[in-house]
Amino acid sequence: MEGLPRQVGCRASFLSGLHSGTWRGGNHIAAPADRGQTLLAVTNAIVGMHREFYGRGATRGRTVMQENYVVCVLDDIYTKAERTLIDAGRFGEVQSARNAFQETMEERFSKAVEEITGRRVVGFLSQVRANPDIATEIFILEPDGKRE
To answer: Domains in the chain, start-ordered, CATH in brackets?
Structure first.
């Protein structure tokens, strides 16, 4: 996956019911080992882009995928400057800046997920929280078989 960030120390997860050879809605579901590698690649890509553009990535990340949804959860995301603002009661400013960043990065994040999963991203949602120190990146995928 050329152009994607190197692997970071993150975990991947897959939801129950995903076994090699399982068919759901007429679509073959990847074996857990393949799925785990895919999810780890998504986590690494998203954390890597955060690190590249913020100068710091999450210390822990996890990605789950089921059907047409990919959810990446990032822990311990804030820079020292952002943490200082949050501790001073100014989370709103941090959240606003993070939201602007996510809107700006939507195309890059979505492209990485598309390259890794082989599926088109049709929607993107992002959210941050101060307590717990967490961010979510949610990708809605085009249903299998809809791609032309």
So the answer is: 11-141 (3.30.980)
